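Sanity check

After download, print the first record. It should look like this:
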Amino acid sequence: MGLGAAMPTGPGVIDEPAIAEVARGVPPPIATFLLTSAVTADEIVDQQRRCGTSTVQLVAGVDPCVHEQLRKRMPGIGLVQVIHVMGAGSLHEALEVSPRVDAILLDSGNPTLAVKELGGTGRVHDWSVSRTIREQVDVPVFLAGGLTVANVGDAIEAVGPFALDLCSGVRTNDELDRAKLGAFMASVRKVEVGSSRSSP
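Expected structure tokens:
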């Protein structure tokens, strides 16, 4: 369950007291993800302690030493690094960061802008790059970026991700749309059924 803290842009942000309240109410088998745009170890550790999530999802790039510090200072807390797929260079970034985290999430933001886009853009990126990343790293790969009921089947078949992360594709007027979410999950199940039928 993704819980988005303050971001430069994008929908679905909630305040930290609300994140903490939700995290407390989620039963242990379900992971709670704090989506943070903080980039220093002190900021990230303090925010995770305030929010109490089981996982931290870093939506911005951080120095390698930050991952190392987080491991030492947050034992037992999962680390997911977001990589914004902007071209073939994203493969190098993924290969460098993957040994230091528990999973990678591939998204379609643009952290090079003056006001950084760190998620929730509703844009699709180049899935062939995502596929290459998924095949070459040794950690689970989550796929995000413009996923909708219309394209999720193609996305799963093109990339073969461990899991999906969605936001704008299941929202209406910046609110979660239950009908869109239901249709999205139905499309995911169709792909899973099709895959199981076609396997030997």
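If your output differs, re-run the checksum step. Summary of this record's structure: Residues 174 and 185 are 19 Å apart (CA to CA).
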